[in-house]
């Protein structure tokens, strides 16, 4: 039976991925602060901000495993949408503690405790490459996450695939906050998120999970350690429009990179 580990499995994309893999016959292990609503997923409670608890939790959860086919580093926080100049460094550090340093800790555990790992996917974001006003700590941390994966690609065995993946827009608690609590006049990028929700373009967590899992083979064929936006694989026109609107390019549309 194939085995997967997913962080942040209590809600949103992580739960969608856990449910989809479990329904497809995988053995799924997950962590989060809240419980996982699916009893057939092996779950441990863990607050990954408390870095010292991560290794003992993972050891208890997966102590007998020699091989894990898929590791999805999905747990993440958005932080407050605000100008960087009005954001304290301590607030940025809180975001980095979850989105970067906890991910490093989980990667270290897999590197040292699991004999073979098939593919590691860090859930990144378009925000890692698009510098929209207000996305300060989140954008910085997701960009750092992309580099984390690139650097760990040197340290994991060649057989382990590593990808930082932007999953596209998903209807979760995170985007609910963006649609309902953020000043659209000041932070214009929120408008696109509200529009995607209103027009039905925004996927449910389950559909977003299926979209990602459909692309597993394609992701394995991308260079190890690369940042990939799911839209560049299955919706290239939408992706080109998005990047064109942001004045941003990546390896998929810029041969210079
Ligand atoms: N939604 C989107 O459109 C979108 C777009 C691009 C990227 N992403 C990324 O997708 C990932 C999932 O986000 P989502 O949209 O599904 O949001 P979500 O519903 O808020 O889910 C976040 C998950 O992360 C877990 N988590 C947060 N802080 C944690 C902590 N300290 N310790 C352990 N687990 C923690 C949460 O579990 P607990 O609260 O139970 O701990 C929850 O299961 C994130 O990395 C996000 O940056 C989302």
UniProtKB/TrEMBL annotation:
Cross-referenced Gene3D superfamilies: NAD(P)-binding Rossmann-like Domain
Keyword Nucleotidyltransferase: no
Molecular function (Gene Ontology), one example: oxidoreductase activity, acting on NAD(P)H, oxygen as acceptor
InterPro entries membership: NAD(P)-bd_dom_sf, SDR_fam
Keywords: Oxidoreductase
Oxidoreductase keyword on record: yes
Organism superkingdom: Bacteria
Pfam family, any one: adh_short
Family as reported in the entry's similarity comment: Belongs to the short-chain dehydrogenases/reductases (SDR) family.
Protein name: Short-chain dehydrogenase/reductase SDR
Species in which this protein is naturally found: Chitinivibrio alkaliphilus ACht1
């Amino acid at each position: 039976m194939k085995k997967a580990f997913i962080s942040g499995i209590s809600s949103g994309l992580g739960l969608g991925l856990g449910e989809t893999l479990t329904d497809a016959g995988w053995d799924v292990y997950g962590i989060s602060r809240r419980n996982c609503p699916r009893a057939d997923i092996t779950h441990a409670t863990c607050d990954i901000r408390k870095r010292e608890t991560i290794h003992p939790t993972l050891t208890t959860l997966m102590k007998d495993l020699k091989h894990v086919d898929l590791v999805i580093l999905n747990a993440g926080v958005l932080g407050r949408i605000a100008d960087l100049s009005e954001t304290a460094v301590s607030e940025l550090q809180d975001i980095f503690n979850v989105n970067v340093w906890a991910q490093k800790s989980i990667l270290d555990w897999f590197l040292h405790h699991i004999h073979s790992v098939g593919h590691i996917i860090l859930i990144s974001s378009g925000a890692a490459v698009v510098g929209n006003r207000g996305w300060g700590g989140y954008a910085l941390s997701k960009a750092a996450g992309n580099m984390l994966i690139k650097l760990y690609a040197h340290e994991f065995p060649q057989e382990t695939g590593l990808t930082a993946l932007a999953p596209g827009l998903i209807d979760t608690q995170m985007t609910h906050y963006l649609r309902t609590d953020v000043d659209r006049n000041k932070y214009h990028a929120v408008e696109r998120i509200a529009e995607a929700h209103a027009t039905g373009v925004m996927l449910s967590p389950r559909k977003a999970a299926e979209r990602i899992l459909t692309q597993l083979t394609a992701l394995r064929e991308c260079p190890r350690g690369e940042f990939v936006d799911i839209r560049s694989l299955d919706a290239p026109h939408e992706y080109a429009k998005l990047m064109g609107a942001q004045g941003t390019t990546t390896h998929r549309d810029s041969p210079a990179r």
